[in-house]
What does this fold into?
Amino acid sequence: MKHVTYAEKAHLMGDDAADALVEYARALALADTTETVTLRAIDLHGNEVEATFLLSASTPILVESTNSGLEVPGNEEIVVNMRHATAALLDPPAVQPEDRSSDPRPRFDEEL
It folds into this structure.
């Protein structure tokens, strides 16, 4: 479990969610883009909440370890999605040329 501090508020969440959030924020900053992510967390009062994070190049996020014995809120699906999105931002797929062999429209380099 880790403390995630964002906008002067701290939330507890699982290690995987906190680490994926920071990695995704870094990838978004490198790509000069933004995204929102909603994660289940535990607030300072011990309530399970949904926290939405706006991630951008100027997003300050602090992640700290904790020895909390509270049950970790489930974020498995969003963690997988963040990891896929992070990988796509850091190593985007190569652009492939379009197969125009069966396209009846004239090409720009052909005479009409």
